[in-house]
Amino acid sequence: MADPVEGSTPAPPTAKAGAVTAPKPPAAPKPAAKPKESADPPDPLRRRVIWGMIYGYLGINLLMFLRFFFPRALYEPNTIFNIGYPADFEIVIDQRFLMTNRAWVVREPDRIFVIFARCTHLGCTPEWKPAENKFKCPCHGSGYDSEGVNFEGPAPRPMDRAKIALDPTGKMVVDTSKLYMDDPRAGVNQFNDPGAYLPV
Fold it and tell me: How many domains does the chain have?
């Protein structure tokens, strides 16, 4: 082999036949692609609202299911009630029992009777108008005098009267399940029957 000449660059060694060459170093990995921006995390308030609606729906259905087991009964007041002694009432329309038992107690100089507060037109509850000295139905304008006898409006007949009697202690007992009626068109007048009034 000849010595290299000064000032010249040595030639690279040539590979000999049959020699194994070193593997090339692996290429540098490509930079990873930017990840796509991830979706916002779920809103916890929205989830709470949705679950609240689901629980509310299920709760209402549960209540409707439980309501099925309770009877749909009307709790009406007792039809037989005590109103006190005859001396407790003055000659006036007494409204103490209107809200609880739907009845007016009417005291006249010689008798006491009880008017059942139901208009004979469509069953509304009339109002007592002391300034006009009459009962006036707010539904369709039927008017009744102080004894419950109709004189204006569409009511076909006077208001009914409830049974009244004295108990052994001298107190008055009213029974609104037994009513006395006066219907001039049918020729029926029960206002003077025993039990329709109490003589005093």
Answer: 1
